[in-house]
Amino acid sequence: MRFFKKKAAEPLAAASPQMKRGGGQPFPALGGYVPLQQGEAKLYRAIREAVPLVDACIYKIIRLCGGVRAECGDPEAEEGLNAFLNQVDVGRGRRGVNAFLDQYLESMLVFGQGVGEIVTTGDRRDIAALLCGRTEDIQVREGESPLDFQLCRLDQWGQVKPLPYQNLLLFTPFNPETYAPYGVSLLRSMPFLTELLSKIYCAMGLNWERMGNVRFAVVYRPKDGEWERGMAQERSRQLASEWSRAMASTRDGSVRDFVAVGDVDIKVIGADNQILDSSVPIRQILEQLVSKTGIPPFMLGLNWSSTERMSAQQADLLTTEMTAIRRTLTPALEKICRLWLRMHGYCCPFQVVWEDINLQDLLEEAKADWYREQTRKLALENDRLEREAQRAP
Question: What global pTM score does this model have?
Fold first, then answer.
């Protein structure tokens, strides 16, 4: 139901986002100054770049959260709201609230905070875009009560100033704690293990560079009397020259024999050494990293168990994790939908509806439904027999 008549469509003025950084200056590092408490942002980016498995886990979580739509009491409002959610501009050539949620959720998982902005048109009658902000550019200023806080930004003089339109800003903390009420990153406990993993891989690379790229030791033992006649030094130069020619021919793809006269011994440097087995420590570290994300290992291509199918327990746990993340994102979506409805004159109730998470085997679900219906049929039959027994004299 609409409480006022909508005016005729007018040309929309240009949108002006408030979180956009100002004009350039000769020292951009000063303008982009980040407080020390936000310095871990570079660390979390480095973790994602160093360990592809962690990066894959984050994208899996984003994909598993699925899409979203809205249901309203007014069919006309529901149609318009869902059209807005599917077509809203989110910047950088992308459209739709699901594309906005991908960026918003990624920032929330990696940095512990999701920051966004509702950009209105110049006449303040419609929503022009939904944009995600950089958590490094935003600071949180607490108010007099725990319920009161403001999002601030450094101005051109380096002073912290609250953003002017707080009602158009979106802020979602991830797993807030007592000592970190504004969210903690999903990667918070990973730096130590990531450092160990990078050391192992770095050592493996150095070992293969030393031992995989074979080097030879050519030892010439001169006979008695050759040292006195000065033949040993000349013989050594000849051996070195011939050996270099043989190796050069090998690099070009041809085979050339090396012929030497006298007591000459050729050995491979490092052939008698054994590279340490790294499979066990790497698996132990990866198990810790994957367990923090809640993603089953087989979904990342890791064959750590004898079964290839996801068990019902794993599916339930993963569904619970995704449901918890959806509960965290729902207030921001409700704020967007509520503002759009009010701007277009609707006062009907609405509900944010997420797509179903289907991780179960369809055959197993059908069997479960069949067993459930059989149980219900037997229960009704028992109730009927009991009622007949009670009515009998």
Answer: 0.71
